[in-house]
Amino acid sequence: MNRSRTTTAPLERPAELAALVADLEAMLTRLRLTAIRDRLDNLLEEASRSVIR
Fold this sequence. Notes:
Elements: H1 14-30, H2 34-52
């Protein structure tokens, strides 16, 4: 089976990213997937540090 990939444009505004992250964190918390939430938080911190540099 061959699946087509959909690509999305990168988020242009930090507020959009922050809103998406907040929504995702809330969903993961409700599902009690704290390990995934913690890892996501770490990855986002690393990404923001690399953007700042």
